[in-house]
Amino acid sequence: MRASHVLTLTLLLLAAGVGAASQQAPKRPPPADGDDGRAHAEEAVVESMTGHHMHGNPHLRLSPRRPERPGDRQRSAAIVASLKPALERYRDYHVALQNGYVIFAPEIQQTIYHFTNYTVGFTETFQFQADHATSLLYRKTKAGYDLIGAMYTAPANASEFDLDARVPLSVTQWHQHINICLPPRGTAANADWKKFGPEGSIVAADACRAAGGRFFERLFGWMVHVYPFEKTLEQIWSMDPSRPEAR
Fold this sequence. Notes:
Layout: H1 36-49, E1 60-62, H2 72-87, H3 93-98, E2 101-103, E3 113-117, H4 118-123, E4 135-140, E5 145-154, H5 160-166, E6 175-182, H6 205-210, E7 214-218, E8 222-226, H7 233-236
Antiparallel strand pairs: 1-6, 2-3, 3-4, 4-5, 5-8, 6-7
């Protein structure tokens, strides 16, 4: 199976494995079949995740927020307690690169950079391991990158029950990128990206077809960010990427 272009944030239908102890980080896989429109859209997703408003966005689907139940805070605390020490070695971003994490779209200026491990992303399709995050989240500095958090992923068709079993839906909400209209292949350079893509005005299949585009009900699987170095539950599971600061 060929690996598709992912964030881990990402597609989760990956099969191109990367050895956890590989000495050289692999290059990011190219978009399938030279699809320049999809490549542009995926990079736009990265940019949007560093500053978009989650609520009221027709290109985003949020998991329902559940009332808090007994044990939810303990479960979320256990996730953080497992993840935090596992991330410590990745404060040096070189270690992340040496262990199969790849910088997604480093050529694009971003508030938060996703270092994605394709093997972990594929594994998360089948099971959730709190100490294995699909992506590591970094802020760029003059000296390199500072680690601030991580991102878990889940299959695109995961149910509300499945998502809650991974991370309690009373403490945070997972999100998906949906209703994406891409321009015809080979036209990305001249396409009107005010209409197309994850921030475009087209949000319906019929409007997309009328514009000559290709409609995707969703572009990636489910994703959720976590900032385990923060102090409070609200900050740790914040949906606003502009709030957490590197520690």
